Amino acid sequence: MRDRIQKEISLYEKLNILSDAAKYDVSCTSSGVERQGDGTGMGNCLKAGICHSFSADGRCISLLKILFTNECIYDCKYCINRASNDVVRTSFTPEEVCTLTMEFYRRNYIEGLFLSSGVLKSPDYTMELIYATLYRLRHVCNFQGYIHVKAIPGADQRLIRLTGYLADRMSVNMELPTAESLRLLAPHKSRKNILEPMRFVQEKMKENRQEITLYRSAPRFVPAGQSTQMIIGATPETDYQILRVTESLYKKFDLKRVFFSAFVPVNEDKALPAIREQGPPLLREHRLYQADWLLRFYHFEADELLDEDNPNFNVLLDPKCCWALKHLETFPVEINRADYHTLLRVPGIGYKSAGRIVKARRMGSIGFEDLKKMGVVLKRALYFITCGGKMMHPVRIDKDYITRNLLNTKERLPEGSDGMTFRQMTLFDDMNLSGVNVK
């Protein structure tokens, strides 16, 4: 039996190790609840008080984001904390997590806690430690700020229920979009073990809403809802498959958010894709987030955005522009007559600006200058709208023409329009290069 030399690790060293180990878990959020403190403890959950900041690689760091432990009994091939990896292992104690949370909060570094974990010994053992941590934080330290916690798949439902009454948001990570992908890269996990706690949290939330209707003083169970995360690019699923799974999770499990995490190759394994040269698929992740926004706020269906014949997004254009270019027969839309849902389908018009348009036109006719003040992105919208029956510039409703102009990121009027273009002059602008295309 191999001897193992252990040394005492300071709290600061633990924080460095376990905060770094948590950076790949993007499923952290701090919105969706407005629970005020009662004046006897520290912190509150007012949405206005929850700030967001981001690290250089785009990860959210507004909460104290840590793992309880990076020890894990599982050997997921994509995970830096997999059991077979030779990394420094450590764990917090419940007291240490509470100390860090309270001291960081007192210094105004954070507005809440995001606590995830590897699986130490067993799901039940880990979930019990997480529950003990939250119980101490709420009832001993009297912390009334925001807490987002991970439910450990396979843990006893009683522990998940007790923890849910102490947390504001809870999440169970899907990890990978399909059961086949789990079998390939995370054989110790199963779709059933992931979906069961997700369903349990959903049902308990529904029961709790009924309890609160009858008894206003009833304790709240996961009042900010639940979320999940999927790794993108580690397995060969198309954007269409991922979006269908996302839509199903929203409809069947009432999730607040589905997060996407671009696959980062931290391990060497023949089952993992070799993407070191091109790097993580961050632009693909971005397009999926935009499509997710369309599902949640713009009343789109997954089958409208993609299909079997066109299973992946064009990474050069946002998903709404892609949809509009495939449905040019519905454009241009008259701003002064189109209903709210039609306005939502216009590239450059958000759900807030669509609401402003509907309200403003009750007072009179709307022009392009008005749209600009309402927050409409005219450099995209101008190809798809009219105001008073007129377009902003003489443009053609032609797929190639519009695509070419949308891909032109320089600030200029549409190609072929009269008037001055807002484009930086180049060395060749005033040169007579007949027969040479320099654009």
What does this entry look like structurally?
The chain is α/β, with parallel strands linked by helices and 439 residues long. It folds into 2 domains: 11-265 and 280-305, TIM Barrel, CATH 3.20.20.70; 319-407, no CATH class. The chain contains 15 helices and 8 strands. It has helices spanning 11-20, 94-106, 123-139, 157-164, 179-185, 191-214, 239-253, 282-297, 302-305, 319-326, 340-344, 351-360, 368-373, 378-381, 399-407; strands at 64-67, 112-116, 146-150, 169-171, 226-232, 257-262, 333-334, 385-386. A 6-stranded parallel sheet has the order 1-2-3-4-5-6. The longest helix has 24 residues, at 191-214. The radius of gyration is 25 Å and the shape is globular. The N and C termini lie far apart (70 Å).
List the main descriptive attributes of the protein structure presented here:
15 helices, 8% strand, alpha/beta, two-stranded parallel sheet, 6-stranded parallel beta sheet, single chain, 36% helix, 439 residues, TIM Barrel
Number of strands: 8
CATH architecture of the largest domain: Alpha-Beta Barrel
Query: Helical residue percent?
Result: 25-40%
> What order do the helices and strands follow?
HEHEHEHEHHEHEHHHEHHHHEH
Biggest sheet, strands in spatial order?
A: 1-2-3-4-5-6
- The CATH superfamily of the largest domain is known as Aldolase class I
User: What's the CATH topology label of the largest domain?
Assistant: TIM Barrel
Q: What is the overall shape? A: globular
User: DSSP strand (E) fraction?
Assistant: 5-15%
Report the span from N to C terminus: 70 Å
Oligomer: single chain
- Number of self-contained structural domains: 2
Q: What gyration radius follows from the Cα positions, in whole Å?
A: 25 Å
Continuous helix count? 15
Mean model confidence by pLDDT: 86
- Class computed from helices, strands and strand pairing: alpha/beta
Please describe the biggest sheet, giving its number of strands, its sense, and whether it closes into a barrel: 6 strands, parallel
